[in-house]
Amino acid sequence: MKEDEMGDLAGWIALGATCLAALMTASNLGPRMTGWGFVIFTFGAIAWIVVGVATDQTQLLWSNIFLGVVDLFGIWRWLGWQTRISDTVEAEQDRSETESGETLFAFSKLGGMVVIGSDGSTVAHAVDALAACSSGRFSHLIIAEGGVAGVGETLRKLPWNEVKMAGDTLVTDLDCAHIQRLERAEAA
User: Fold this and answer.
1) Which of 129, 124, 123 is nearest to 110 (CA)?
2) Are 119 and 164 within one domain?
3) I need a labelling partner for 125 at 20 to 30 A (CA). Which of 21, 53, 174, 175 fits?
4) Cα–Cα distance for residue pair 145/16, rounded to 1 Å
């Protein structure tokens, strides 16, 4: 294979790998998926390095050597450290259910969970939860309702006493109309 053909092929591989990895990491589908996104980013960086060498582009070469090192850090952080934490939390949940019959919920998984309303439809998505520092009791959820992918949505405060856990779902007796009347949560 000629050097320019190799550079061209490496460029297409680099483009595909970089786009796929960006989608995987931006989707935030958990530590494993993010970690594998960094693995694919690493292959993309290697392919971009080949392009840089084949086309004599020094900036492309050095920027992707640096990005390759960053990708290795991402692999360690997401496939190593974060996955270990996630696996430990899941094991604790399983152990708790087996040993005590009590189902525990990891609040780190709260963001993005659907909130099901009284009619069984999705009325919002959980964004975060707030707890009182003195008692540790949860005060309310910050929920997002309306809009698509963050555009046009409204953040509201859903009182914790209006929510129940049902497996990996949040359930409320409130309907869409009531959710839309909840107090807004806004940045200062």
Assistant:
1) 129
2) yes
3) 21
4) 34
Helix (H) or strand (E) holding 164, with range, is: strand 164-166
- CA dist., res. 174 & res. 183, Å (int): 14
Between β-strands 114-116 and 169-171, what pairing exists: parallel, antiparallel or unpaired? parallel
What CATH code is carried by the domain that includes residue 161? 2.30.30.240
In a domain, 8, yes or no: yes
Report how far apart, in Å, the C-alpha atoms of 46 and of each of 6, 59, 76, 144 are. Answer: 13, 14, 18, 40
Specify the pTM.
0.71
Number of domains in the chain: 2
Q: How many helices (H) and strands (E) does the chain have?
A: 5, 6
* Separation CA 21–CA 37 (nearest Å): 4
Residues 65, 11: one domain? yes
7 lies in which domain range? 3-100
Strand order in the sheet with 114-116: 154-159, 138-145, 122-131, 114-116, 169-171, 164-166
- Regarding whether 168 and 111 lie in a shared domain, the answer is yes
Q: Which residues are 116's β-sheet partners? A: 122, 171
